[in-house]
Prior knowledge:
Elements: H1 7-52, H2 57-103, H3 109-139
Amino acid sequence: MPESIPISSLVHVIQLAIAPVFLLTGVGAILNVMANRLGRVVDRFRALHVEQANATNLALSAIRAEMAVLAARARLIHWAIGLCVGCALLVCILIATLFLSSLVHTNLSKPISLLFISAMVALIFALLCFLREIALARSTIDVTPR
């Protein structure tokens, strides 16, 4: 029968897992914002699709141009969401590895470090995609004074 883990060791592992859990909370909040933005892009795309049927040739070209920008924004948000989900999954695996390391009394510091670095890289690229999507959305807004 396997040896039981001392409670002090388990408490230490739980303390180590607290920071990644807070990271998961932050990533969840970012995912919520991105999902809302994607929903708005999809809603606008659908509205333009309906307008397209009754549009004149001049209006049709403007609608198609806006739809192209919306499609690019949707792609960027999709990538950002995928990278954030990847980050969250890596953090979950990291937490499980922390506990596994304690259970089997093995030093898994290298895999744990690689998981954390990978999660941060995924989050960095997700935020860069998100920033690019925001810049693309901003570029379509005319804010010049009249």
